[in-house]
UniProtKB/TrEMBL annotation:
This is TMM88 protein. Keywords: Membrane, Transmembrane, Transmembrane helix. The chain crosses the membrane at residues 21-49, 74-95. It is found in: Membrane. Belongs to the TMEM88 family. It comes from Heliornis fulica. PANTHER family: TRANSMEMBRANE PROTEIN 88-RELATED, TRANSMEMBRANE PROTEIN 88B. GO terms for molecular function: PDZ domain binding. One of its GO terms (cellular component) is plasma membrane. It is a multi-pass membrane protein. Its main location: membrane.
Amino acid sequence: EPRSPWCCLVWTLVIVTMNILVFLINFLLMFVTFTIVLLPTIVVVYFGFQCHSQVLHSAARYCKSILDDNSSSALIILGFVIMSPLIVVAMAIYCSLARRLHLFMCFQPYSRAVYKGVKWRWYKEGGFCGCAKGWNTQVKAWV
């Protein structure tokens, strides 16, 4: 049966807040995963730009003794070349983690706020967002 307008508004705010928290958890997981996997690229490109005379030309000792403009350019090119495969690896790791943690199952539809008696998704799945029961590899996020 439908909820009253005020009750629907309160439940809508609860569901929107919960979905925003789930989104932020997903975003944080993605940010951490991409940062860790892309760290070699970030470091190589950083040192390449830091020591190149046309960009920053740092006065650090390693820039004067080890890296000249040619080697700095090589570092910049190497960093951008290894970025593409590392982005694919980072995305695969993130998707694997999100699937194992059932993070996409935690999003709740708006119908939970409109109607009384609609069971929460984690209640039907046997735990919070489906994590309490055994790993089911056939469960899809959109079901």
